[in-house]
Amino acid sequence: MDTLEHLVTEQRNERTLDLSELSIKEIIEIMNDEDGKVAGAVRQALPVIELVTAEIVKALEQGGRLIYIGAGTSGRLGVLDASECPPTFGVDYETVIALIAGGEGAFITAVEGAEDDEHQAAIDLQNKQLTEKDILIGLAASGRTPYVKGALQYAKQLGVVTAAVTCNRNSILSEYADLAIEVEVGPEVLTGSTRLKAATAQKMVLNMLTTAAMIKRGKVYQNLMIDLNVSNYKLRERAHSILMQATGTTAEEAEIKLVEAGNHVKTAIVMIEAGVSQSEASRYLEETNGFVTKAIAQARLELSR
């Protein structure tokens, strides 16, 4: 195993050797400059990100789950991304899940030593009943966290597709994953503080993985969140606005159709665009696996006969 000081994420940034002596203006300017390099580093990993996204889509199509597993900041980013999927894309809370070393409490309070427990990862995955239908993505900026390594090893035994998201090239975790997303952002402004550029890079990658996968699962129409869960006043207002933008209908008509559709935006869109009833719209969506464009096309085709 590489020693910590050999990792790029642990090296000193030559631009910030006098960080403690800089003014606030100078500190935030240099942080902004360094953050500006992250997107370019992520771009270099796009080919692998594409492959991982395709595997996520495949897993979801066969009834599997996307499971993130990580420790510390990386683990928290997994929890954050997973928790946003149900309200954004209307999936249940078991479709995208996240495990963090030390358990749920570690999201708020650090659990010392949890990330070093390689065997606990297998126990945590057993408790989630990991199967070969799922895809497991290990998250670790360093690329060597024992907890995540143990998870990837256990998943491999079950024939589960695995991926790793790290910020060091040729990392240990990459050796244990089927697909390795390595985004090397260079030394941090504050030496070893991977909650900075490395975390930003990982967040960008996770944004891509779930957003692109959900789009390819029919959770988006045009560029609109048409599968959002209308669970409060704000989201109802958003659903109303989305319906108007998607169809060009009036506010009054949007309200009527949204009520008839039981606040299900996708159904309301098909109702308006194809001129069909709620039950018919639901049937077309079911026949096309929830893809609005296909449902509208099929409805129009049948009505034209």
From TrEMBL:
Domain SIS per the UniProt entry, residue ranges: 56-219
Catalyzed chemical reaction(s): N-acetyl-D-muramate 6-phosphate + H2O = N-acetyl-D-glucosamine 6-phosphate + (R)-lactate
NCBIfam families: N-acetylmuramic acid 6-phosphate etherase, PRK05441.1, PRK12570.1
Pfam families tied to this protein: GKRP_SIS_N
Gene Ontology annotations of biological process type: amino sugar catabolic process; N-acetylmuramic acid catabolic process; peptidoglycan turnover
Domain of life: Bacteria
Organism: Cohnella abietis
Protein role: Specifically catalyzes the cleavage of the D-lactyl ether substituent of MurNAc 6-phosphate, producing GlcNAc 6-phosphate and D-lactate.
Complex formation: Homodimer.
Protein's name in the database: N-acetylmuramic acid 6-phosphate etherase
UniProt key word Metal-binding: no
GO MF annotations, alphabetized: carbohydrate derivative binding; carbon-oxygen lyase activity; ether hydrolase activity
SUPFAM superfamilies: SIS domain
Pathway named in the protein's UniProt entry: Amino-sugar metabolism; N-acetylmuramate degradation; Cell wall biogenesis; Amino-sugar metabolism; 1,6-anhydro-N-acetylmuramate degradation
UniProt-annotated catalytic positions: 84, 115
Further comment found in the protein's record: A lyase-type mechanism (elimination/hydration) is suggested for the cleavage of the lactyl ether bond of MurNAc 6-phosphate, with the formation of an alpha,beta-unsaturated aldehyde intermediate with (E)-stereochemistry, followed by the syn addition of water to give product.
Membership in a protein family: Belongs to the GCKR-like family. MurNAc-6-P etherase subfamily.
Keyword Lyase among record annotations: yes
EC number: 4.2.1.126
Protein keywords: Carbohydrate metabolism, Lyase
